[in-house]
Amino acid sequence: MQSMEEYSVTCVQESSGMVSHWVVLVLCCLGQLCADQSMKPQLAAPQLAINNPTLTTIALEKPFCTFDSSLHPNKSYAIYLYVMKSSASTTSSVVTDSNSKPLDSTFQQTLGGNLGPYKAASFDVPNCASPPKLADAGDINKVSDVLKQYLFRVGDDGTCLYDPNFLDVCNPPLSPDTTYRFKYVLVDNTEGIMKDQTLWSDPIKTREAKLPMKIDIWPGRRSGSMIVITSILSVSVFLLLAGLLASVFSALVESEDPSAETKGTSGTTQQSELRPQQSSE
Questions:
Q1: Percent above pLDDT 70 for the chain
Q2: Residues linked to residue 150 through DSSP beta bridges, in sequence order
Q3: Which of 23, 74, 142, 226 is 20 to 30 Å from 6 at the Cα level?
Protein backbone atom coordinates (compact mmCIF):
# COMPACT_ATOMS: atom_id res chain seq x y z
CA MET A 1 0.00 0.00 0.00
CA GLN A 2 1.22 3.46 -0.91
CA SER A 3 2.40 5.55 2.05
CA MET A 4 1.01 9.01 2.76
CA GLU A 5 4.31 10.63 1.78
CA GLU A 6 4.46 8.75 -1.56
CA TYR A 7 0.83 9.64 -2.22
CA SER A 8 1.56 13.32 -1.57
CA VAL A 9 4.55 13.28 -3.93
CA THR A 10 2.44 11.63 -6.64
CA CYS A 11 -0.31 14.23 -6.24
CA VAL A 12 2.19 17.06 -6.42
CA GLN A 13 3.72 15.62 -9.60
CA GLU A 14 0.33 15.17 -11.24
CA SER A 15 -0.74 18.65 -10.19
CA SER A 16 2.52 20.09 -11.48
CA GLY A 17 2.06 18.33 -14.81
CA MET A 18 -1.52 19.56 -15.10
CA VAL A 19 -0.50 23.11 -14.21
CA SER A 20 2.31 23.12 -16.80
CA HIS A 21 -0.13 21.77 -19.40
CA TRP A 22 -2.61 24.54 -18.69
CA VAL A 23 0.17 27.16 -18.70
CA VAL A 24 1.09 26.08 -22.24
CA LEU A 25 -2.55 26.24 -23.33
CA VAL A 26 -3.03 29.67 -21.75
CA LEU A 27 0.10 31.03 -23.44
CA CYS A 28 -1.12 29.75 -26.80
CA CYS A 29 -4.55 31.24 -26.28
CA LEU A 30 -2.99 34.57 -25.34
CA GLY A 31 -1.29 34.71 -28.71
CA GLN A 32 2.15 33.39 -27.78
CA LEU A 33 3.74 31.34 -30.55
CA CYS A 34 3.89 27.63 -29.84
CA ALA A 35 5.49 24.96 -31.96
CA ASP A 36 2.96 22.91 -33.88
CA GLN A 37 3.23 19.43 -32.44
CA SER A 38 1.82 17.92 -35.64
CA MET A 39 4.64 19.53 -37.67
CA LYS A 40 2.35 20.36 -40.57
CA PRO A 41 1.82 23.68 -42.35
CA GLN A 42 -1.41 25.25 -41.14
CA LEU A 43 -3.90 27.73 -42.54
CA ALA A 44 -3.36 31.24 -41.19
CA ALA A 45 -5.62 32.29 -38.34
CA PRO A 46 -8.82 33.94 -39.64
CA GLN A 47 -8.09 36.99 -37.46
CA LEU A 48 -4.97 37.66 -39.55
CA ALA A 49 -6.10 36.43 -42.97
CA ILE A 50 -9.70 37.24 -43.87
CA ASN A 51 -11.38 35.30 -46.70
CA ASN A 52 -8.74 32.59 -46.67
CA PRO A 53 -8.41 30.66 -48.94
CA THR A 54 -9.39 32.76 -51.95
CA LEU A 55 -9.91 31.63 -55.55
CA THR A 56 -6.17 31.66 -56.31
CA THR A 57 -4.31 32.07 -52.98
CA ILE A 58 -3.89 30.26 -49.67
CA ALA A 59 -2.33 32.02 -46.66
CA LEU A 60 -0.25 29.77 -44.39
CA GLU A 61 1.32 30.36 -40.99
CA LYS A 62 5.10 30.51 -41.16
CA PRO A 63 6.90 27.76 -39.20
CA PHE A 64 7.64 29.64 -35.97
CA CYS A 65 9.55 27.51 -33.43
CA THR A 66 9.11 24.42 -35.60
CA PHE A 67 12.79 23.81 -36.45
CA ASP A 68 14.48 25.26 -33.35
CA SER A 69 15.92 21.91 -32.31
CA SER A 70 17.61 21.56 -35.72
CA LEU A 71 19.29 24.96 -35.73
CA HIS A 72 22.98 25.33 -34.83
CA PRO A 73 24.90 28.52 -34.02
CA ASN A 74 27.08 30.16 -36.63
CA LYS A 75 25.15 28.55 -39.47
CA SER A 76 22.85 30.05 -42.06
CA TYR A 77 19.48 28.50 -42.80
CA ALA A 78 16.49 29.09 -45.07
CA ILE A 79 12.95 27.77 -45.26
CA TYR A 80 11.72 26.33 -48.55
CA LEU A 81 8.00 25.93 -49.18
CA TYR A 82 6.87 23.18 -51.53
CA VAL A 83 3.41 22.92 -53.09
CA MET A 84 1.67 20.10 -54.92
CA LYS A 85 -1.85 19.24 -55.88
CA SER A 86 -3.53 16.70 -53.68
CA SER A 87 -4.28 14.62 -56.76
CA ALA A 88 -0.55 14.16 -57.47
CA SER A 89 0.90 10.72 -56.82
CA THR A 90 2.28 10.18 -53.32
CA THR A 91 5.30 8.47 -54.87
CA SER A 92 6.30 11.78 -56.45
CA SER A 93 6.06 13.80 -53.21
CA VAL A 94 9.79 13.65 -52.44
CA VAL A 95 11.41 17.10 -52.24
CA THR A 96 15.10 16.08 -52.12
CA ASP A 97 17.46 14.10 -54.30
CA SER A 98 19.57 11.13 -53.22
CA ASN A 99 22.14 13.53 -51.69
CA SER A 100 19.56 15.31 -49.51
CA LYS A 101 19.74 18.39 -51.72
CA PRO A 102 16.37 20.15 -52.03
CA LEU A 103 14.77 20.08 -55.45
CA ASP A 104 14.39 23.26 -57.49
CA SER A 105 11.35 22.05 -59.39
CA THR A 106 9.32 24.93 -60.81
CA PHE A 107 5.64 25.54 -61.39
CA GLN A 108 6.07 25.01 -65.12
CA GLN A 109 8.07 21.80 -64.78
CA THR A 110 5.44 20.18 -62.56
CA LEU A 111 2.45 21.59 -64.48
CA GLY A 112 1.35 23.58 -61.48
CA GLY A 113 1.88 20.74 -59.02
CA ASN A 114 0.16 18.03 -61.06
CA LEU A 115 3.31 15.95 -61.51
CA GLY A 116 4.81 16.58 -58.08
CA PRO A 117 5.89 19.34 -55.68
CA TYR A 118 7.32 22.64 -56.87
CA LYS A 119 9.23 25.23 -54.84
CA ALA A 120 6.99 28.24 -54.24
CA ALA A 121 9.06 30.21 -51.73
CA SER A 122 12.34 30.66 -49.93
CA PHE A 123 12.58 32.87 -46.82
CA ASP A 124 14.53 33.28 -43.58
CA VAL A 125 13.79 31.13 -40.56
CA PRO A 126 11.24 32.98 -38.39
CA ASN A 127 12.68 34.23 -35.12
CA CYS A 128 10.97 32.29 -32.37
CA ALA A 129 12.86 34.15 -29.61
CA SER A 130 11.51 37.59 -30.55
CA PRO A 131 8.39 37.27 -32.71
CA PRO A 132 6.50 40.35 -33.88
CA LYS A 133 3.94 41.70 -31.46
CA LEU A 134 0.39 40.68 -32.28
CA ALA A 135 -0.83 43.95 -30.77
CA ASP A 136 0.94 45.76 -33.64
CA ALA A 137 -1.52 44.15 -36.05
CA GLY A 138 -4.01 46.80 -34.94
CA ASP A 139 -1.65 49.61 -35.99
CA ILE A 140 -2.29 50.59 -39.61
CA ASN A 141 1.38 51.59 -39.98
CA LYS A 142 2.69 48.23 -38.72
CA VAL A 143 0.08 45.70 -39.80
CA SER A 144 1.71 45.04 -43.18
CA ASP A 145 5.07 44.15 -41.61
CA VAL A 146 3.43 42.01 -38.91
CA LEU A 147 1.47 39.98 -41.46
CA LYS A 148 4.55 39.58 -43.65
CA GLN A 149 6.46 38.10 -40.69
CA TYR A 150 3.66 35.81 -39.58
CA LEU A 151 2.15 34.65 -42.87
CA PHE A 152 3.05 33.51 -46.34
CA ARG A 153 0.44 33.75 -49.10
CA VAL A 154 0.82 31.00 -51.70
CA GLY A 155 -0.17 32.10 -55.22
CA ASP A 156 0.38 35.80 -54.62
CA ASP A 157 2.54 36.61 -57.68
CA GLY A 158 0.54 37.08 -60.87
CA THR A 159 3.41 38.23 -63.11
CA CYS A 160 6.45 35.99 -62.51
CA LEU A 161 5.35 33.35 -65.04
CA TYR A 162 5.31 35.88 -67.87
CA ASP A 163 8.38 37.93 -66.94
CA PRO A 164 11.45 36.65 -68.85
CA ASN A 165 13.75 38.60 -66.52
CA PHE A 166 12.31 37.10 -63.31
CA LEU A 167 15.04 35.02 -61.61
CA ASP A 168 13.62 34.52 -58.11
CA VAL A 169 11.38 31.68 -56.90
CA CYS A 170 8.07 31.99 -58.75
CA ASN A 171 4.88 31.88 -56.68
CA PRO A 172 2.12 32.03 -59.33
CA PRO A 173 -1.64 31.98 -58.67
CA LEU A 174 -3.24 28.67 -57.72
CA SER A 175 -6.18 27.13 -59.58
CA PRO A 176 -9.72 27.76 -58.28
CA ASP A 177 -11.64 24.87 -56.72
CA THR A 178 -8.45 22.81 -56.42
CA THR A 179 -7.00 20.94 -53.43
CA TYR A 180 -3.34 21.46 -52.51
CA ARG A 181 -0.86 20.22 -49.92
CA PHE A 182 2.18 22.02 -48.53
CA LYS A 183 5.52 21.22 -46.89
CA TYR A 184 8.17 23.35 -45.16
CA VAL A 185 11.83 22.30 -45.49
CA LEU A 186 14.77 23.58 -43.44
CA VAL A 187 17.85 23.99 -45.63
CA ASP A 188 21.46 24.54 -44.55
CA ASN A 189 22.62 27.33 -46.83
CA THR A 190 26.32 26.47 -46.37
CA GLU A 191 26.06 22.79 -47.23
CA GLY A 192 23.05 23.18 -49.48
CA ILE A 193 21.27 20.18 -47.96
CA MET A 194 18.02 19.58 -46.13
CA LYS A 195 18.32 19.47 -42.33
CA ASP A 196 14.69 18.99 -41.37
CA GLN A 197 11.18 19.06 -42.80
CA THR A 198 7.54 19.07 -41.80
CA LEU A 199 4.95 16.55 -42.84
CA TRP A 200 2.78 17.35 -45.81
CA SER A 201 -0.15 19.48 -44.74
CA ASP A 202 -3.71 18.30 -44.71
CA PRO A 203 -5.49 18.97 -48.03
CA ILE A 204 -6.50 22.62 -48.39
CA LYS A 205 -8.87 23.68 -51.16
CA THR A 206 -9.11 27.01 -52.96
CA ARG A 207 -12.54 28.55 -53.41
CA GLU A 208 -14.82 27.78 -56.29
CA ALA A 209 -15.73 30.50 -58.77
CA LYS A 210 -19.52 30.91 -58.84
CA LEU A 211 -21.36 31.42 -62.11
CA PRO A 212 -23.64 34.49 -62.18
CA MET A 213 -26.78 32.37 -62.43
CA LYS A 214 -25.77 30.49 -59.28
CA ILE A 215 -25.33 33.55 -57.10
CA ASP A 216 -27.99 33.57 -54.38
CA ILE A 217 -30.10 36.75 -54.53
CA TRP A 218 -32.90 35.59 -52.18
CA PRO A 219 -33.63 38.43 -49.68
CA GLY A 220 -33.73 35.94 -46.83
CA ARG A 221 -29.93 35.65 -47.10
CA ARG A 222 -29.45 39.42 -46.94
CA SER A 223 -28.86 41.50 -43.82
CA GLY A 224 -31.46 43.93 -42.49
CA SER A 225 -29.48 46.96 -43.60
CA MET A 226 -29.22 45.62 -47.16
CA ILE A 227 -33.00 45.12 -47.30
CA VAL A 228 -33.63 48.67 -46.01
CA ILE A 229 -31.23 50.17 -48.56
CA THR A 230 -32.81 48.17 -51.38
CA SER A 231 -36.30 49.29 -50.34
CA ILE A 232 -35.27 52.96 -50.22
CA LEU A 233 -33.66 52.76 -53.64
CA SER A 234 -36.74 51.07 -55.10
CA VAL A 235 -39.08 53.75 -53.73
CA SER A 236 -36.76 56.49 -54.96
CA VAL A 237 -36.71 55.06 -58.48
CA PHE A 238 -40.52 54.78 -58.46
CA LEU A 239 -40.94 58.41 -57.36
CA LEU A 240 -38.44 59.56 -59.99
CA LEU A 241 -40.31 57.75 -62.75
CA ALA A 242 -43.67 59.08 -61.50
CA GLY A 243 -42.32 62.63 -61.51
CA LEU A 244 -40.92 62.18 -65.00
CA LEU A 245 -44.24 60.88 -66.34
CA ALA A 246 -46.12 63.75 -64.67
CA SER A 247 -43.76 66.28 -66.28
CA VAL A 248 -44.24 64.74 -69.74
CA PHE A 249 -48.03 64.67 -69.35
CA SER A 250 -48.10 68.31 -68.19
CA ALA A 251 -45.97 69.38 -71.16
CA LEU A 252 -48.32 67.61 -73.58
CA VAL A 253 -51.40 69.28 -72.08
CA GLU A 254 -49.82 72.72 -72.24
CA SER A 255 -48.84 72.19 -75.90
CA GLU A 256 -52.49 71.48 -76.79
CA ASP A 257 -53.97 74.58 -75.04
CA PRO A 258 -52.68 77.32 -77.49
CA SER A 259 -54.31 75.59 -80.47
CA ALA A 260 -57.63 75.50 -78.62
CA GLU A 261 -57.39 79.22 -77.83
CA THR A 262 -56.53 79.99 -81.48
CA LYS A 263 -59.60 78.11 -82.67
CA GLY A 264 -61.81 79.98 -80.18
CA THR A 265 -60.45 83.36 -81.26
CA SER A 266 -60.94 82.68 -84.99
CA GLY A 267 -64.53 81.58 -84.36
CA THR A 268 -65.35 84.79 -82.49
CA THR A 269 -63.82 86.92 -85.25
CA GLN A 270 -65.93 85.21 -87.93
CA GLN A 271 -69.13 85.78 -85.95
CA SER A 272 -68.30 89.49 -85.49
CA GLU A 273 -67.71 89.88 -89.24
CA LEU A 274 -71.01 88.24 -90.12
CA ARG A 275 -73.12 90.51 -87.89
CA PRO A 276 -72.37 93.80 -89.76
CA GLN A 277 -73.18 92.14 -93.08
CA GLN A 278 -76.56 90.94 -91.79
CA SER A 279 -77.40 94.38 -90.40
CA SER A 280 -76.57 96.07 -93.72
CA GLU A 281 -78.89 93.73 -95.59
A1: 71
A2: none
A3: 23
